[in-house]
What we know:
This protein has 302 residues and is an alpha/beta fold. It has one domain. The chain has helices spanning 4-14, 18-22, 36-58, 65-83, 93-100, 125-132, 173-178, 191-208, 295-301, and strands at residues 26-27, 88-91, 118-122, 138-143, 148-153, 160-164, 219-221, 236-237, 241-242, 250-251, 263-265, 268-274, 280-286, 289-291. The strands form four sheets. A six-stranded mixed β-sheet has the order 6-5-4-3-2-9, with helices on both faces. Strands 1-8-7 form a three-stranded mixed β-sheet, with no helix packed on it. α1 (4-14) packs across α3. The longest helix has 23 residues, at 36-58. The model has no long low-confidence stretch (mean pLDDT 82).
Amino acid sequence: MSDPGGLENLVKDISPELWPQIYPKRIIPPLGYHNPKTFSAIAGYREVMARDFLKSHEDGKEVNEGDLYLAKQCHSIMDILIAHEFPTYFLDPTFCVSVSETAAPDFSFREINWPLRAFVLQLPKSFSNEFFGVEVHSLAVCRSDEDFMIWYSFPFRNGYGNEIRRENLDATFDEFVRAVPAEDRDTLDHMKILGPHFVVNLLAILNARPNFIGPAETLQRPARGVPGEKKHRDALWNPRFIGSGYQPPTDGLEGTHRSPREHWRRGHFRRQRIGPGRMEFSIIWIEPTLVNGDVEVLNVDN
């Protein structure tokens, strides 16, 4: 099925109690973003299919092992998102570019603290096409007890997911990439590299700069009810942003060594030892710098 409205109706018909759980708030999408309702429709459809598949397995029917693994993965992600009431954040376009223009951290996945255990990231259309090479409008990122999982939502598709499993949590990002089969790097499976790169960078940045996480959604219009009838779920909420209004450092080089073209000087992370005996460390983000570029033009382009 390719129509989000059709998927929404299908979810409501098959599992009426599921829809309010996966779409608990009507959030107004800013210009340049997809409606969060589209992700909920796709995710709900996948969850309905996963539940049906898992029930068939429990009933003793023979199922494909690969499909069983995907069904379990989808169901685990949905359980975590529902438990956290589908926390939805819109990523600022310029902030997204700076996240992608930062080298992946050289410390292990396990050393990154999670500011949130689950979130649905709404990506700006302009950025997702440029970075991923395909239009990825949402990333659902969850931390389970054993590993963390990333689920990609493509418009009008069923989705795609991968995970960094428990046995890889002590690896650095570079070590993780080297374990990805070479043939997967030239297909859609290149998302196995690009997705974790973006998500791990984002988590590390939010460790260093938790203030980038915007305040909770604000109610724009309360739900209206009709006396004697069930209250309508028509309340409207303003979006919640990460990195809202972010401006990267700039450098307009001068003199004989001036580079004539606009480019990015890559950002990176470093660790600073802190605490008694300097046994702990904090993450410091050295931001990427826009060289010979105009931030205002960058903002307009995004």
